[in-house]
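Q: Two folds, back to back.
A: First:
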Amino acid sequence: MNEHLKEPLHNYMNQDDPGYALLITGEWGVGKTHTLLNLLSKDNVYYVSLYGLSSEVDIHNNVFNAMYPLKNKLQLITDKFKGLDISAFGLRMGVGNVLSEMVGSSFKEDIKKDKVIIFDDLERCQICLNKTLGAINKYIEHYGCRVIVICNDNHSKNELLVSKEKLFGLTLKVLPNIEEAYVHFTKHFTKNKIHNEFNKKFSKLILDIFRTSNVQSLRILKHTINDCLQLYSVLEEKHKNNQNCMRELFSLFIASTFEARNGNLIKDDLINRTEKINDFIFKKNKNEILSYTHNDDDTPKKENKETTPKIKIISDKYVSIPFQSKIISDDDLNDAIFNGNFNKTSICNSINSTSYFLDSRNVPNWVIIYSFYNVDNETLDNAIKGLKDEFTNRKVIISGEMLHLFHLMFMMSYFKEISETYEEIESQCKKYIDDLYSEGKIEPTEINRTFHFRKNRSYGGYGFWTQDDYKDNSERIISHLSEARRKSFIDKQPVIQENIIDTLKHDIRKFAKLVGYDDGQPGEYFNTPILSGIPIQKFIEAWLSNSKNQWMTVTHSLQIRYEDGRLEEELSDEKEWIKSLLQELEQLSLQETGFRRHCLEMLAPPELKEYAFG
């Protein structure tokens, strides 16, 4: 790799006064500087980075510094003596000025021509391109130097073309030396058992996928290797020992990471990737992507082609990689690639839910049907039969699983696996919800809280299988369930409030965690206006029944609860309640004197009053 550079570089280096510069180009991160310095040797070059330079003087100073590093150090010393005077023979003189004159006189020495000058990072120079090239040209025309300029592909392409014939006699492109780079990036892996184990298993896979990706940046390769190590470190030993499982997981992860880091994928592309790909394939098979209408003369007329999802385009690029695989959830894949977070528990749970580690008898029917494209017919038929039984006999009561059940009923109608229409299924799903509510089995939800299933449209690492054909039916089902959960919460609210008062009396810190934050996470009722409706006197009595040194715990939890304008949004139902509470505390404090009054006044600090009264 890059053997094509050796001869022209050798010929250029042997010229005394070439009269032109070489332009070295290549994609970002391809290793241009590394390759060039290896071919020429650092001892044969004066290396100058243009990164961040803002004037032509900066360029010339950096060339001088590269050629005369010792004199550069002396110049730095003279700067430190600026303003320092000495007296001798009745005269006063500035030490810095004297030294500067001595050094300055030596600056006028001829520019060295014994080595080639390399100007790197042309695209990162802060000076306009014409002035930068003009400054570089002085070393070619006036001093007869050999000069090489390194620049990313396509940077200021038009301006470079204008200057190319005058300044650059030859343009050479650096190609990524993938194998050599990989060895360099992983040479330290032998010192770490886990890293070395990973390298032996996946080096070929990484290199094969990198070639397929057509990504040119070796930096992306390096970052992806490091990402893979992080993923590998959170896996269980049984995962690592299952070769097929590892290939499926890492091929998906590596390809997705390459494409994301190269700017071809964003977070939204990976959300519901399975549904996007399968839906596109299904519509294509139904001739809904490329359909024909017939004119009076029976001539086919081509309609507009539907936009192909980006994830489908990427999937087609890597024909052997299962981008539909749920071996890692969409959320975990996004979190790892874009945020650098590798959730060990969630990732391992996803892997453990695959056919590699679970007997189909222990896998939920909805999970099997969700992966119908990767399941044998007998297992799939049994899962469909089981799902219908669960639907008929109302066996699924967890809200997230229930929505998967409902959406898969719609999906099976979509694929003509069952005969019911979308409207019939919607009616049956609503009755399912109503039946559970009447039996007191619907999970309660928080009042006025945005129903998170509507926002995320997923549960258990799987997105709800939704197609445009029944999207409106889906929205109505989610709304119906949301309302049923809200009513269930209201039904149980008195019992919950009694439990809150009891907790406030006997475990004030637990109370604070329930209504505020619990170990950095929102507490169970943090987004719930559950305090509204609790009698003020009863609340204060429970509060003040605790030892005095614990009273402020409640105040702090209420401050956290109501900050950031939350009384105007999700907790608006509590606004009048907190006002009444503060007013009652004020009345109690007025009935006391001295220390007792002060202790009660502290329970209603100005910040809390500001939240309540504005």
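A: Second:
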Amino acid sequence: MNSDFNPFRYSENSPDVGSEVVGLTVWRGRDRQPVHHLPKPVDMIIPRDKQRNTSSGVYKHTGWIKSWDDITVVPFRPQRARTALIIILNITSTSHPDLDMPHMQLVWQKASPPTADSFKAADWTTVLPVPQAQLYTLQLPHTYNNTNLTSHPYSWLLPSEALNVSKLDIQDNMTFYLGIRYAGEDTSTPVDTTFTVSILETACVYFGENSSHLWEGDGCKVGPLSNTTHLHCRCDHLTKFAGFVPPNPINFDVALSANITENQMGLIAVLSVFGLFLLGYLMARRADRIDLKKVGVSTPSGHKLSSNPDYHYIVTVYTGFRLDAGTTAQVSLSVFGLKNKSEPFTLRDDRRLLFGGGSVDSFLVSSEEPLGPLTHIHIWHDNTGPSPGWFLSKVVIQHIRSGRVDYFICNKWLALDEDDGRIDRMVFVASPEEMADRSNLISERATKDFHDGHLFYSLVGRPARSPFTRAQRLACCMSTVYSAMLANIMFFGQGDKFDPPEPIRIMGVEIEPPISLPEIIIAIKSAVIVFPINALIVLLYRNAAPKPSSKPARKLADTNDVQDTGKGRGCLPWWTATVAGLLAFAVSFVAAFFTVLYTLSFGRDKAEAWFTAFLASFVTDMILIQPVKVLVAAVVLGLLIRKPTKEDEPSPTEPTGDEEYLQIVAEQSWLRPACKTCPLILEQKDACWDGQMLFSGLE
């Protein structure tokens, strides 16, 4: 395996790895065979990272010698301990025609510059060029033309023990010196030689997959074939190999100087997302306005409330989330108790949009006589309109005085062309066992998660009662998409060249894991980039209190005795929604900016490959993976938490922004047990402001 990137960046010391990674593995059938303590080292030639090239990884110095006793001193400060040095001398010019390859003596010395005496008594010295017979040659008999690699004659390899660099030397910025002079004492011949010396600090390391998960150097040494473009490693075992070079900071010069007209993929990607956001925002605002006509509690048209509050009930009808689940027919309901039954209620309100797909519609009704404990309901429709078929999820009835809540679970069609073809149902009150039934709990939780919990799916199915609007959800979606684009492009291509994880044997059965540990770490890093900041934005939006209106709500009844406990309101100040919006746009801008920089540094071909891969993975995730995740979460939580899910029922609020409506504050008086006289405001047809009325949901 040869990888042009470091697939183990999750390792603590991976930032120091600056070469490609080579992996060698011996397999016997399906079993990996460990290889250690080879009598003859394995030679590996590893390309250095081109993007982290010579600016910091190679130290260069240009010098000249004009006489036989001249000494050129090159200072050098190593960046880390336990590394080797490759010193390459390049003769650029010489004045003597017989000295095309002049003999040069090199001395390596610590702390003090070398003198003439140092060249006679130095511990680490050499004379270049190396004789032809002594050059290191690596034969490659299996290549096309039997290539042989030969070391550079003016190359000097200083092993790590020669440097003797400690961590204290690194901390103290200890300076080492390289001395260069002519080898010999022919002072009669005038000379003038110019040269360039290159010093490469490097080491050969392997990755301890089964031990420390760090890059280690045991059993590996730098070879004499190392140069500015390749690293030569000689190791006595097989694993993942790479080379250390000094860390190189991110260089934006290439990206910022690139011609964006030649590589427009990143800009097209981020602008396309923003264009879709603008278009979606207009649609979301329109849908939010329509939702204002769906929420609240009202008395059915033509129904006269009893003056006795003991006979008052709130009936909440839940239409299911199915294709064409809503109905255009007229729905009616009768309630049965142990003592009496109610008259049929025609659930109609000309001021609201009722019984649409996934809608929750509440009505305030009353009976003429006490019903006692409720036993069952009879619900039906008249099969009128262009789409009369109706999927009823459940009906919840709350007795105002006692607060008792009864559930009537249906989950059936009332349609001539669905199920058994019936358009009326007799539904009995749900028992505790039926309420805790796993199938009901899982179904309710999955429905709520799809249409309220999931950001992208809830853009279509958002409950009208939820204070988290579609426009706010869309802003969160935009931030999430940009963050996902940045995380994806940061790790693009890193999971393509891993060795497959070793099979796991359990009781003789061999199981191949579908994902390796490095890939899991990459996924975790991506999640760390995407999840926390976007979760914070959603948290701020969901818990922000409504903004106070500059126009007070017009009251149609005396509300001196109305008590507003604030239940259901956001627990954070109203301005946190503004903070969330600003934060969403800030995250989107930063992620989009760096995504464009990445694509410019990638080049056109790689940028197009990234965008294709990202688009395919995103679509696959939305269509296949996310629904499975929601269903699995619903199943797990449904099995662990044996309680029905709760719907959002915000308390009455004042009009906000451009969502002005007539707030019927007097409705709250019906919910107060101390109420003795229930006003019949809802019977007044002229109680309408600008032809539109909105009723706030009641707890």
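Q: And?
A: The chain has three domains: 2-249, 250-291+452-497+515-660, 294-435+678-699.
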